[in-house]
Automatic annotation (TrEMBL):
Belongs to the TonB-dependent receptor family. This is TonB-dependent receptor-like beta-barrel domain-containing protein. Keywords: Cell outer membrane, Membrane, TonB box, Transmembrane, Transmembrane beta strand, Transport. It is found in: Cell outer membrane. The keyword Membrane applies.
Length: 238
């Protein structure tokens, strides 16, 4: 049986000179959690894993007169098939909770500049909700001993996943306006004036990962590839 606690504090404290610059929030975010996990072997080649996690977060921005807190309980379960010591096939279900970071909640100021034509600036969003997700994943792990000689090992990992996320936190560019650049009217175009973080009510993420690790004596080499496709379920847009 495995159990424990973890946590961190995210603090935002800065200053800017000049009366025309936006005030930087003085914010503190506390995040902590407690978790437990138990593995139950049965039928010789099967193993059941059960787990649970409790998360709590609280955030406060003094000069914005803003404070919030939230919490969640997240269960998990997995079943693994181990036909031999080299192969493991796992199907798992996990729920997860992610609190918005201080950057996502309170960032202000210039994001990037267009030069004399203007700049894109951040709009803070202290009302961001935490992400809550339900994840299904299928994993295969295979190990080959003495693959090319007597002292090497090859580890192969493959997985596919399907995630349903409520209140997915997305960074977007907004408020597009036409800006005439100094290079001439032929370069007139619409540019985003602001950048902000927002919640997507219901998001879906699907993808896969492949990885191979080769070990020989004191040498190690690894190659991996992953792909994720995400969409807003309400609009069907990426």
């Amino acid at each position: 049986m495995l159990y424990g606690v973890d946590g961190y504090q995210d603090k935002l404290d800065a200053s800017r000179s000049g009366p025309s610059r936006p005030i930087v929030p003085e914010a503190t975010t506390d995040v902590w959690g407690a978790f437990t996990e138990v593995q139950i072997p049965f039928a010789d080649i099967l193993r059941l894993e059960l787990g649970a996690r409790y998360d709590y977060f609280a955030t406060e921005a003094d000069n914005l007169n803003n404070d919030r807190s939230d919490n969640a309980f997240s269960p998990s379960a997995a079943i693994s098939w181990l036909p031999n010591e080299d192969l493991q096939v796992t199907l798992r279900y996990d729920e997860a909770f992610r609190a918005p970071s201080a950057e996502e909640l309170y960032t202000t100021g210039t994001h990037y500049s267009y030069g004399p034509a203007g700049a894109n600036t951040f709009i803070n969003n202290p009302n961001l909700k935490p992400e809550e997700s339900q994840n299904i994943e299928f994993l295969v792990d295979y190990q080959m001993q003495n693959a090319f000689n007597e002292k090497d090992t090859v580890n192969i990992h493959a997985s596919v996943f399907h995630n349903e996320v409520n209140n997915f936190i997305e960074q977007i560019a907004t408020n597009y306006q036409q800006i005439m650049l100094i290079y001439g009217p032929q370069f007139d175009d619409y540019y985003p004036v602001n950048t902000e973080y927002r919640n997507v009510d219901k998001a879906q993420l699907v993808g896969f990962e492949l990885a191979m690790d080769y070990q020989w004596q004191n040498w190690n080499a690894m190659v991996s590839y992953g792909q994720t496709r995400a969409k807003n379920k309400n609009t069907a847009k990426p």
